[in-house]
Amino acid sequence: MAVPFDQRDGVIWFDGKLVDWKDAKVHILTHALHYGSAVFEGERAYGGEIFKCTEHSERLKESARILDYEIPYSVEEIDAAKRLVLEKNGQKDAYIRPLAWRGSEMMGVAAQSNTIHLAIATWEWPSYFDPAQRMKGIRLDLAEYRRPDPATAPSRSKAAGLYMICTISKHKAERKGYADALMLDWQGRVAECTGANVFFIKDGAVHTPKADCFLDGITRRTVIDLAKRLGMEVIERRIMPEEMASFNECFITGTAAEVTPVSEIGPYSFTPGNMSKALVDAYMAEVTPKA
Fold first, then answer.
1. Exposed/middle/buried for residue 175 (C-beta within 10 Å: 0-12, 13-18, 19+)
2. Residues 6 or more apart whose Cβ sits within 8 Å of residue 225
3. Are both 155 and 71 inside the same structural domain?
4. Shared domain check, 272 and 144
5. Which of 22, 158, 172, 290 is catalytic?
6. Angle at alpha carbon of residue 120, lines to 118 and 126, rounded to 5°
7. If you placed Cys at 128, which of 2, 57, 103, 256 could pair as Cys (CB 3.0 to 4.6 Å)?
8. pLDDT (tens digit, 9 = 90+) per residue, 197-234?
9. In which domain, by residue range, is 21 found?
């Protein structure tokens, strides 16, 4: 059985200093726990180097601004803190989790005077899906919950509260034997998975939904760039669920998922092929530190 995350060894960067892992605690009356005012990032280090480190720190700062608060550390300070924790924990290939949240000074919807906290943890974490089985493709359920209208939720922020429906959807999918679930948007169009963006391939072109009501992932943008470098046409557009019957290949992207082909989404089937493999290989080459 895996060691629970609150009982592991190592250090965590907490409000400007390193503390023992088990001492990184917050009070039960913390605004973020009650009102979902936390923002976070998911990052990976490969060979001791954090991939797109600064882009993630910039997005963390922007996510907090969207939730109406300012993280009291610069992008450069956050970058340095992440690298320090990675070094002190003696990790080369690891997952990095910066988290910012409103504290406990006010306990109500309004919390203008609350202290803004920042913590950074790192831990060893292998690929989200089994690399040996990657090209076989994973199976996805179709989620009941939909990504909300951007007029009703801060969809450009990587905010903890927005993941509530993702957890529910992933739990339901896993109970039915699927690896994850595909979510539609509030208008019934293809959106994303519970923690990853989705791509399709048809007639030699790569299609992906417009990221206007869900997070425009850093891995998503990286893969779009890689596809264009490989001479692939990339089309960002509205995609209706019934269109999935016409696509040949499908894959998902994310810091955790990296690039993972898909073999099934509900009633729709796909065959992981050469274009998916080319992007899997290109992404792994991109994140591997150069000698």
1. exposed
2. none
3. no
4. yes
5. 158
6. 150
7. 256
8. 999 999 999 999 999 999 999 999 999 999 999 999 99
9. 8-123
Q: What is the pLDDT of residue 216?
A: 95
Contact 60, 41 (CB under 8 A): yes
The per-residue pLDDT of the chain, averaged, comes to 95
- Quick check: 121 and 12 in contact, CB under 8 A? yes
Question: pLDDT (tens digit, 9 = 90+) per residue, 54-112?
Answer: 999 999 999 999 999 999 999 999 999 999 999 999 999 999 999 999 999 999 999 99
Beta carbons of 216 and 243 less than 8 angstroms apart: no
Backbone angles phi, psi at 17, to 5 degrees: -145, 155
Do the strands 190-193 and 43-46 form a parallel or antiparallel pair, or are they unpaired?
unpaired
pTM of the model: 0.94
Domain CATH code at residue 78: 3.30.470.10
Catalytic site includes residue 158? yes
* Average pLDDT estimate for 17-37: 96
Question: What is the model's pLDDT at position 129?
Answer: 64
Say which residue the tokens 């592991």 belong to.
Answer: 8
Domain total of the chain? 2
pLDDT of residue 125: 83
**What gap in Å lies between CA 169 and CA 235, rounded to an integer?**
27
**What number of CA atoms fall less than 13 Å from residue 64's CA on the CB side?**
24
